[in-house]
From TrEMBL:
The keyword Transmembrane applies. Residues 43-133 form the Nucleoside transporter/FeoB GTPase Gate domain. This is Sporulation integral membrane protein YlbJ. Keywords: Membrane, Transmembrane, Transmembrane helix.
Length: 406
């Protein structure tokens, strides 16, 4: 019976989307172009280097090396092996869904266990600093100081989620992921790390050209999938608004906001952020009657939730492994809780007091504030991102043709 109901729901949703696209073709096209531009200009060129580097670190044994060095730190704190430090570092710097992508690769290579991978996925998917400081703080709120507050709360909440998830399946018997040769390493930590790196390289003695080609192809395949989800949810968000579905669900959110003495105009932006972060954050920042604290709390909340678009990307990546999606979703709920609490506590010391004491806010000089690194990088990506994306896809086509010719 449950299977029949599920089939009916899937068929109904698909039919609704098809009918809505037929009724609103122009708006659907505009929404898809918006999603495509976001992927073409920002997502692809900003994530590609991290994905390729992650593949190379794994292929050359650097993950093994770092894993041995960081094991004494990562085990007590997060109950994951030292290789999780690579996932955590690159996941927090490059942005979602990098944490899921790298965790899945480590699991496929049997570097980490299923449970360890689920712990990592739960707290290593975060927004990248470029988006927080460039798009949200400067682009939406027009205030760089907001970026520090959101970033500190966002990344601190990630770490707190990791500390909580260390107890996930804490009593479970540990699976064996190290080889007999690795267990036999002796000597100093650095010596064992170098031995792990060297032995991994010896056991994976593929030509450099093939390693580079595989790294590029794997990264591009994942990014193309991510691009499809971005376009899909951009169109879906627009269609839900046009058909009145968003307004219907926003009514329930309005009641909650009214009970909390917050403007009901935040309901629709919040619902949009549940589906897609960028649009939701932009709409929240544009609500005039809301207090800045309420706006920052809601933006931090949708950043922590990741949005259903990111959820779909993560689910698609994890589907290729035995990693379950549920721990990731639990991590998102914990992340929302910690992020909201931290914003409420740190809003005054990290924003209000800094704004009062900042000399840049005193109208003494007419000079404009210089652009920061995030703004410059975003402008550079908007200008050259499409060239990088199309050039990389062309290179991938050449590699694919060469692989088929052999």
């Amino acid at each position: 019976m449950l299977s029949i109901i599920t089939s009916i729901i899937y068929a109904t949703v698909a039919s609704f989307l098809a009918l809505a696209i037929i009724i609103f073709p122009d708006q659907s096209f505009e929404a898809s172009i918006r999603g495509l531009n976001l992927w073409l200009e920002i997502v692809f060129p900003s994530l590609l280097p991290f994905f390729i580097v992650a593949e190379l670190l794994l292929a050359f044994g650097v993950v093994k090396f770092i894993g041995v060095l960081l094991d004494p730190l990562m085990r007590p704190l997060f109950n994951v092996p030292g290789a999780g430090g690579v996932v955590m570092g690159m996941g927090l710097v490059s942005g979602y869904p990098s944490g899921a992508k790298i965790s899945a690769r480590l699991r496929q290579e049997n570097v980490i266990t299923k449970t360890e991978a689920e712990r990592l996925v739960a707290f290593t998917n975060a927004s990248n600093p470029l988006f927080i400081f460039g798009a949200i703080a400067i682009g939406f709120f027009h205030d760089p100081k907001i970026g520090l507050l959101i970033a500190v709360c966002h990344y601190s909440a990630c770490i707190l989620v990791g500390l909580c998830m260390r107890f996930y399946k804490h009593s479970e018997k540990k699976e064996e992921t190290t080889t007999k040769q690795e267990r036999g390493f002796r000597g100093s930590t650095v010596g064992r790390a170098l031995s792990a790196l060297h032995n991994h390289r010896k056991s994976n003695s593929e030509p450099l050209g093939k390693i580079l080609g595989d790294a590029v192809m794997s990264s591009i395949q994942t990014l193309v999938m991510i691009g499809g989800f971005i376009i899909l949810f951009s169109v879906l968000n627009k269609l839900l608004f046009l058909t009145g579905v968003s307004s219907f669900f926003a009514t329930s959110i309005e009641k909650i906001l009214k009970a909390l003495s917050q403007p009901t105009e935040l309901a629709l932006p919040l619902l949009s952020g549940v589906f897609e972060i960028t649009l939701g954050a932009q709409m929240i920042a544009q609500v005039d009657h809301a207090t800045l604290l309420a706006q920052v709390i809601l933006v931090s909340g949708i950043l922590a939730f990741n949005g259903l678009s990111i959820h779909s990307q993560v689910a698609s990546i994890l589907a290729r492994t035995d990693i379950r999606f549920a721990p990731y979703f639990i991590g998102r709920l914990l992340h929302i809780f910690f992020a909201v609490i931290l914003v409420s506590i740190l809003f005054k010391p990290l924003y209000v007091e800094r704004t009062i004491l900042s000399p840049s806010d005193i109208p003494v000089s007419t000079k404009t504030e210089p652009e920061n690194f995030s703004t410059i990088t975003l402008e550079w990506l908007h200008q050259f991102g499409p060239l990088i994306t199309m050039g990389t896809i062309l290179i991938a086509c050449v590699i694919l043709l060469k692989q088929k010719s052999h």
